[in-house]
Write a structure and sequence with these properties.
There is one protein chain. The protein has six domains: 195 residues, no CATH class; 82 residues, Beta-Lactamase; 158 residues, Heat Shock Protein 90 (2-Layer Sandwich); 105 residues, 3-Layer(aba) Sandwich (Rossmann fold); 134 residues, Response regulator (Rossmann fold, 3-Layer(aba) Sandwich), CATH 3.40.50.2300; 102 residues, Four Helix Bundle (Hemerythrin (Met), subunit A), CATH 1.20.120. Helices cover 45% and strands 21% of the residues. Helix 11 packs across helix 15.
């Protein structure tokens, strides 16, 4: 369509140009015709002027001839004898048998003449008569010369003839015209004979006193014709020299047309091919004379040329017709006609070029466009007819149908049917079509109509399109039915998922809880191994179940964020500490880098942020075989009390291709599952992506095969604390602090954090000699990845398996590298500065037993035993019932501080129990216990009147926190623990839970036995036994939840398993020393 419009615009411009050129050509043509007319007019006018000039000269010459002849006849004087005597010397006489020829030379005032006398005589016979004739000739010669010398016309050939004899006279002499191929004598006689013969044919009347004209002949013997004019005298006197009476004397002249124009200027000389001379009495003297009666005076164009007729206009006038051929006309006016012809050729050439240009730029494109439009129109008509949409065009006046396709005719019918159908439709407004749509039901058809304004043949109209939506309506009805069925099935699925969650998580809770309690009992080394295996498998199963439930909640739109205060720095350090042992087991370097302007606290869902970071960090470690994994926390910007944070996990793993990145965040997708080297269900990244979207954040990945991966999680949160709280420096020293690590960015990060509290911190420059300042402090980060250095001054070793609280061991301080606060404390202690140690965990731990009276409604025996044990661990007294009805009966006879009830129980479930209880007691706290982690389960519990909701498995901390939340301070009867207010010991014991007395006693005795067995095995150099015992101790530590000692124990186990001897493994003796310190702390607190 765009090309057609462009072509039409181009054609329009060409047409405008052609019109302009055509107009210009029209004006030029007018000019050409004007110029041509003017040129031809000038040529013809010139010819007419020349013809007029010729005519007047010709007629003048004729009149001059007539005047001359009449004067010769009437005014001939008598000759004198003296004249004859004077010319005798100039007379040449020639005699023949019958004629005598005299040639008399002319004088100054006379023309030469020739005299022919018949009947030759002796020399002196009749001498007088001859003299008279010669005198007459002399007299006529003088008169001839005198007359024509005064005339503007040339002198003609004159003859004096005697019609009754052969007497003849020629003035001037004929021999003057020699050169015709004859002798002078023969020429004279032949001419006189032809003239005499012509006169005899039409002898003149002597009494007429007029000149007779004889049509032209070749009297002189030339190729041209001469017109003969002659006159006769009535009674010639004696001067004619005639002795007989009444002789018939004729005076004649030859009118030679060519001689008339001999003295005419060339520009005035007539140019003609032939001439018709007609006497007044209608005799054609020259030419054919056939055109005399056909033309009036004027100029005429014939097929032979130009014809010009002239006359005096009177009745008895001479008529002259000039015939000028086109060739002679062109020769005479060649430049004028050449210019006209040239102009004509130019105009014809320009006209041809114009026609060629018009045909090339207008006619041919127009034909092409017209053909194309016809083709398009036919194609459009074909489409309109073949389209599965009913189309029609309706005019406003009377809803007139002007066009419709076959489908419209089939569906809508004729004009009347369509008018009735669209009668109530708002298709026109004030005579103008408008946009709109409508629905129509015609028989079994359900049609959807849309109409829009258009123009049809220059008039406004409405284009209507009807679509058959019958199948759509049927599908919509079926979809509604299917949706109802799907909703019902979804409800069944939700109920099934809740049941399965409860059924799976309930025994799983029993397994995990029992394992937790089992770890507090005295177990053999083999049993500890089995326990660790079961706990690991249980944790994997629990994580997989949690991921599936999270995906289910996200898909159902039931996942919500629990907004609260959390510290971004704690998220980073806890995540790195949790995975440091796993990374170290794979030989990976794991550390974090955090901006120093990080806010101390933000408002958000810290649990979900931790979940995202843990999943990303777990994946990075899982798919990295060698190299490092780094967790960055950057502050991207602050604005109006909000801060934008970026957690970035960068690894040197296998990398992810661009094709794999497309599906990376889809559920159950694993990028490297074809290699069968990764475990898991492929839900972690999908959950991370969904959670980041719920937080209005972004999760991006940049990766390439073989170059590692970079996952970035960005989110904007409300800032609660502008900076991280660092310990207050009471005393500032001048000692220099050297920082050394296997990664330059880790060194710079720790240096920046130390510079916020103290100065004179410099990175280790790898100098080989000991600095001269013995008071300088060396801080080594991740020393297991660094070469040994001989340092005699104070030293801090920050490893991944150390405690977050600084510990002095073997003349050096040890602290966890993944705790910046712990590193700062260690530096202060190493420099001898006063420090008040506090930990975040101290404020979170229970300060004593709760002392609550708890009614527990639970039908599962395992859960009964586990919850009872956990509640007793928290110092609560427990009354156990099997269902809700028994709980109601128990409440009628006893008082309780709180009720814990399972939601799925026989006889009466937890929902009905809560509703029944709320009817009589609205204040007693009720806590639901369920294995269903879906939010709808929690909503249902709250709707039933319960105060809180716990999901299995339940940890002691979660149970403690929930009970404290639903009960007030007056109800809680706290049993203070004195030891919690004592200074924290310098060891790993701060990571222990507040174990029950019997569990602590079992822990001390079993560890003491294991340590003695390890020392005995070291003496025997029994590496296998040492590994087994360390593995057993690590299982006990897992129950006691001491991650730093767990990681250190695992590191030593790996070193021994790789073939290291007892003496070659440097970490074995320090680890046994830490075990002994922990054991001593437990004995002291006991």
């Amino acid at each position: 369509m765009k090309s057609i419009r462009s072509n039409l615009r181009k054609l329009s411009r060409s047409s405008l140009r052609f019109n302009f050129i055509l107009l210009s050509s029209f004006l030029l043509t007018i000019f050409f015709f004007g110029a041509s007319y003017w040129a031809i007019y000038k040529v013809l006018s010139t010819q007419r002027i020349k013809a007029n000039y010729s005519y007047f000269r010709l007629i003048g010459a004729i009149h001059e001839h007539e005047l001359f002849l009449l004067q010769v006849i009437r005014s001939t004087p008598a000759p004198y004898q003296s004249d004859v005597e004077t010319m005798t010397s100039t007379i040449t006489k020639e005699e023949s048998s019958h004629l005598t020829l005299y040639d008399v030379a002319g004088g100054a005032r006379a023309s030469a003449f020739s005299l022919v006398l018949p009947d030759a005589v002796p020399e002196n016979a009749d001498h007088l008569a001859t003299s008279r004739k010669l005198a007459l000739g002399m007299m006529l010669s003088n008169f001839h010369h005198g007359f024509w010398s005064d005339s503007i016309y040339p002198a003609p050939q004159m003859f004096l003839l005697d019609l009754d004899s052969k007497l003849g006279m020629a003035i001037p002499a004929i021999e003057r015209r020699a050169g015709r191929g004859e002798t002078a004598r023969n020429s004279l006689l032949s001419v006189i004979e032809r003239v005499s013969h012509a006169v005899h044919e039409n002898p003149p009347d002597p009494n007429a006193h007029r000149v007779y004209w004889r049509p032209g002949e070749a009297f002189l013997g030339s190729h041209s014709q001469e017109v003969l004019a002659y006159v006769s005298d009535k009674e010639p006197d004696q001067s004619w020299g005639m002795n007989r009476g009444s002789p018939r004397i004729v005076a004649a002249t030859l009118f030679e047309l060519n001689n008339i124009y001999d003295h005419t200027p060339s520009r005035q000389a007539p140019v003609f091919d032939s001439l018709d001379l007609i006497s007044p009495n209608g005799v054609v003297l020259l030419g054919s004379g056939s055109s005399n009666s056909d033309y009036e005076d004027g100029i005429y164009l014939t097929w032979k040329g130009v014809l010009i007729k002239r006359s005096s206009g009177t009745e008895n006038s001479w008529h002259v017709i000039y015939h000028i051929g086109y060739q002679r006309l062109f020769q005479d006016a060649k430049w004028q006609l050449f210019n006209v012809a040239l102009l004509l050729i130019i105009c014809l050439g320009l006209g041809w070029l114009l026609l060629w240009w018009q045909r090339r730029n207008i006619s041919s494109p127009t034909d092409q466009y017209y053909g194309s439009l016809l083709s398009r129109d036919e194609f459009s008509q074909g489409i309109i007819q073949a389209t599965p949409v009913a189309l029609c065009v309706i005019k406003e006046s009377g809803r007139q149908l002007v066009m419709q396709n076959s489908l419209a005719l089939q569906w809508l019918g004729e004009q009347d049917d369509l008018v009735q159908l669209t009668h109530d439709w708002h298709m026109f407004e004030e005579g103008n079509p408008v946009n709109g749509e409508a629905c129509a039901v015609i028989g079994s058809l359900c049609l959807h109509a849309r109409f829009a304004p258009t123009t049809y043949q220059g008039e406004p109209a409405s284009l209507c399109a009807f679509i058959d939506i019958t199948a759509h309506k049927e599908a919509e009805s079926e979809l509604l039915v299917s949706r109802s069925r799907a909703n019902a099935e979804n409800e069944k699925k939700s109920r099934f998922l809740a049941i399965m969650s409860h059924e799976i998580r309930t025994p799983l809770y029993g397994v995990v809880g029992t394992l937790e309690l089992l770890g507090l009992t005295h177990l053999s080394q083999q049993q500890h191994g089995y326990l660790r295996t079961i706990k690991g498998a249980s944790n994997i199963l629990l994580q997989l179940t949690s991921d599936i439930l999270d995906i289910s909640k996200i898909e159902a739109g039931e996942m919500s964020l629990d907004t609260g205060h959390f510290a971004p720095l704690d998220v980073v350090e806890e995540a790195v500490r949790n995975y440091s042992a796993i990374a170290d087991g794979k030989g990976l370097l794991l550390y974090s880098c955090v901006d120093t302007d990080l806010p101390g606290g933000v408002l958000g869902d810290g649990i979900r942020v931790r979940q995202i970071i843990n999943n990303l960090l777990s994946n990075a470690i899982k798919f990295t075989k060698a190299g490092r994994v780094t967790l960055y926390l950057n502050v991207l910007g602050r604005e109006e009390g909000r801060v934008r944070l970026q957690w970035q996990i960068v690894d040197t793993g296998v990398g992810i291709s661009s094709e794999q990145q497309v599906n990376l965040f889809e559920p159950f997708y694993q990028a490297n599952n074809q290699q069968h080297t990764s475990s898991g269900a492929g839900l972690g990244l999908s959950i991370c992506s969904q959670l980041s979207q719920m937080m209005h954040g972004t999760l991006e990945v940049v990766s390439a095969p073989g170059l590692g991966s970079s996952f970035s999680f960005e989110v904007e949160l409300q800032e609660l604390e502008s900076s991280v709280r660092l310990p207050e420096i009471i005393q500032v020293g001048s000692a220099k602090i050297h920082v050394r690590s296997p990664a330059a960015e880790l060194t710079n990060d720790i240096c920046q954090w130390l510079e916020m509290s103290m100065g004179n911190v410099v990175p280790w420059d790898k100098q080989t000699q000991e600095p001269p300042d013995r008071t300088a402090l060396l801080l080594e980060l991740l020393p297991e990845s660094l070469p040994e250095v001989d340092w005699q001054g104070p030293r801090i070793v920050a490893g991944h398996d150390a405690s977050v609280q600084p510990l002095l061991s073997e003349h050096r301080w040890r602290v966890n590298v993944h705790s910046r606060l712990g590193v700062i404390y260690a530096v202060m202690l190493a420099l001898g500065w006063p420090v008040a140690l506090t930990t975040a965990s101290d404020s979170e731990r229970p300060e004593g037993a709760l002392g609550l009276r708890v009614l527990l409604a639970e039908d599962h025996p395992v859960n009964q035993a586990l919850l009872t044990e956990q509640l007793e661990q928290l110092g609560c007294s427990v009354t156990l019932v099997g269902n809700g009805l028994e709980a109601l009966e128990c409440l009628e006879h006893a008082e309780f501080d709180v009720v814990l009830t399972d939601v799925n129980m026989p006889v009466m479930d937890g929902y009905e129990f809560a509703e029944r209880l709320r009817l009589n007691n609205g204040a007693l706290p009720i806590v639901a216990v369920s294995a269903n982690a879906l939010r709808e389960e929690g909503d249902r519990c709250i709707a039933a009147g319960m105060n809180a909701w716990l999901t299995k498995p339940i940890t002691l901390h979660a149970l403690y926190t929930c009970l404290r939340k639903v009960t007030d301070e007056k109800t809680v009867r706290m049993i203070r623990v004195e030891s919690r207010n004592k200074p924290c010991p310098q060891g790993d014991g701060e990571d222990l839970l507040a174990l029950p007395e019997r569990i602590r006693t079992l822990f001390v005795s079993s560890m003491a036995e294991d340590l003695d067995a390890i020392h005995a095995a070291m003496e025997r150099k029994d590496i296998g036994e040492i590994i087994r015992l360390l593995h057993r101790i690590r299982g006990v530590l897992s129950v006691a939840r001491i991650p730093s000692l767990i990681a250190a124990s695992r590191e030593v186990e790996i070193a021994l398993a790789q073939g290291g001897g007892v003496s070659s493994v440097s970490g074995l003796k320090p680890l046994l020393g830490r075990f002994q310190i922990l054991l001593n702390q437990l004995v002291d607190t006991h």
